[in-house]
Design a protein that fits this description.
Blueprint: H1 2-9, H2 33-43, E1 50-57, E2 61-68, H3 74-86, H4 95-102, E3 108-111, H5 114-122, E4 126-130, E5 136-139, H6 169-179, E6 185-192, E7 198-205, H7 211-222, H8 232-239, E8 251-253, H9 256-264, E9 268-272, E10 278-281, H10 285-288, H11 299-329, H12 336-345, H13 353-373, H14 376-397, H15 402-415, H16 421-441, H17 443-459, E11 461-462, E12 465-466
Antiparallel strand pairs: 1-2, 2-4, 3-5, 4-5, 6-7, 7-9, 8-10, 9-10, 11-12
Helix pairs in contact: 6-9, 11-15, 11-16, 13-14, 13-15, 13-16, 16-17
């Protein structure tokens, strides 16, 4: 009994269950047109949007055009497929080859199995079946509603490109092609999901990306056996090295310039149809702390902003814990005048500093989450007004002190300086256990928490790359793009752990 419950907890069934395959039968097409159409109609049984258009080629041989209404361009079907086929000569030795020559559509594929026909019909292509032929033609005339290209809301910049990825994978690939206009940019496609058959593309630059890395990425994607993939987060959890770590090991971005810059460093980009977020592997903690705008401003400004970002991250993680530890155990560290003011403000507070901090931090997180889920026009107003009203009410009611409200507000503002949302939410989550350690052990607890986080980060890998590289292990030349942002003429080599194939980024002698 215990073993059965334990296996269920781990997600392993107690006994192997019989699985019904969702894949269509991979049978060869028959010369009989009626049998082929019937086989495909069985696959799309009870699908009101499945259209079968029987007709005669030039008034002679029977044929049928099959497609899904809403995914296929019906006007192109009528104008470029049906009309030319009906005007074809009746007598011809290879009617399939003649149809390829006469139909003015650039993307035409020959398929010979039922499964291949279903695959092409499912992505919006029109399938042509002809009497007496064991092969069929798939015409690439897909058409569906697309979202207009817009600036990513979560990765806004003051200076830089304004375009962002969309939910259509072909458009996203074209964004990369616009940035990197070289045939060395390779794109390999595969489908993931037994029911959704989501198209996934792996992009890399041949000669820059490590072949071993590319093989590992492809193998991890091929091993995924799930019923559906609706967003890139599905794949992220399957391919990351340590799924139990709160720190992200895959970079998700909506910006084509970030993806293109990652490709130029020898990384691999994974694009998923149906989501504007693409995945970049491998990554390090310092690459997650970088923003694209760091490289568009002058290097002095970029370096200052980067250092401020590190300082704000430290404040967002440790400031409430330091306040709790000092107030509870180390009052001698506070100047006498400030200590008297803090003691006066806490005179009527019924809670210890730890409970007060947990209460205010939880309230702030609730307001922030509520603001993110509300409509855009109301979210910002509710977050700001709610924080002001609740903070003032808490101080007036004697539930929280004014210094604690200030500490929580500074901590919340500092967390917004972290450029990547997964890193920011990880910092917000780790803040609570470190506050517990500070409230029980003081500064010693904070040091224990810092050591635990550092040891954990040292053990993490992202597709074999150390998470704290190039600091641990130390790579001296790569530090020019970590602790500082060196000028572009000094960044003449690619990162050592991702750009080994071609280390030179620019010609020597570029320094002005």
């Amino acid at each position: 009994m215990f073993l059965r419950l334990w296996r269920r907890f781990l997600g392993k069934p107690a006994r192997p269950a019989k699985r019904i395959s969702s894949s269509p039968s991979n049978t060869e097409l028959a010369p009989n047109l009626e049998a082929n159409v019937h086989a495909l109609e069985e696959q799309y049984r009870d699908c009101s949007d499945f259209v079968v258009r029987p007709f005669r080629i030039g008034g002679g041989r029977n044929a049928a055009l099959l497609y899904l209404e809403g995914l296929t361009d019906v006007e192109a079907v009528n104008e470029h497929v049906l009309e030319p086929l009906m005007d074809l000569p009746e007598a011809h030795a290879d009617i399939l080859a003649l149809a390829q020559q006469r139909i003015p559509i650039s993307k035409v594929k020959i398929v010979n199995t039922t499964a291949a026909c279903v695959e092409h019909i499912s992505i919006g292509e029109a399938m042509l079946l002809i009497e007496g032929e064991t092969r069929a033609l798939a015409f690439g005339i897909s058409k569906w509603e697309k979202r207009a290209v817009d600036e990513p809301e979560a990765e806004t910049v003051v200076r830089g490109p304004r375009d962002g990825f969309t939910e259509t994978i072909t458009i996203n690939i074209s964004f990369l092609r616009r940035k990197i206009r070289s045939p060395q940019l390779k794109v390999k496609s595969l489908s993931v999901g037994r029911y959704t058959r989501t198209q996934v593309a792996v992009a890399y630059i041949e000669g820059l990306a490590d072949p071993t890395l590319l093989e590992e990425v492809t193998n991890r994607l091929k091993r995924i056996n799930i019923d559906g993939v609706l967003e890139s987060g599905y794949l992220e959890e399957f391919i990351e090295d340590n799924p139990w770590s709160p720190f992200p090991q895959v970079l998700s971005t909506e910006r084509p310039d970030v993806a293109a810059a990652s490709l130029l460093e020898g990384r691999v980009v994974i694009l998923i149809d149906g989501t504007p977020f693409v995945l970049v592997v491998p990554v390090t903690l310092f690459s997650l702390m970088q923003a694209s705008e760091d490289y568009y401003n002058r290097f002095l400004i970029g370096t200052i902003i980067r250092w401020l970002r590190y300082v704000f991250t430290f404040i967002a993680l440790f400031l409430p814990s330091l306040y709790v530890a000092v107030i509870t155990y180390h009052q001698e560290m506070i100047p006498t005048t400030l200590q008297l003011k803090i003691a006066t403000s806490r005179e009527e507070i019924p809670f210890p500093a730890l409970v007060e901090a947990l209460l205010m931090e939880s309230t702030f997180e609730i307001l922030r989450e509520a603001g993110a889920r509300l409509p855009r026009q109301l979210g910002a107003a509710v977050s700001i007004v709610g924080a002001l009203v609740i903070g003032e009410a808490a101080v007036s009611a004697g539930i929280a002190s004014a210094p604690m409200v200030m500490v929580v507000a500074i901590t919340g503002i500092a967390s917004f300086a972290i450029p990547r949302y997964p890193v920011a939410i990880t910092v917000r989550m780790l803040r609570f256990p470190i506050m517990f350690l500070a409230g029980t052990l003081g500064l010693l607890g904070i040091m224990l928490g810092l050591l635990a986080v550092t040891v954990h980060l040292c053990t993490l890998r992202s597709f074999g790359v150390p998470y704290l590289a190039p600091v641990a292990p130390a790579k001296g030349r790569d530090l020019r793009d970590v602790l500082v942002r060196a000028p572009w003429w000094a960044l003449n080599t690619r990162p050592r752990l991702t750009g080994q194939a071609d280390r030179d980024r620019q010609a020597p002698g570029q320094q002005p």
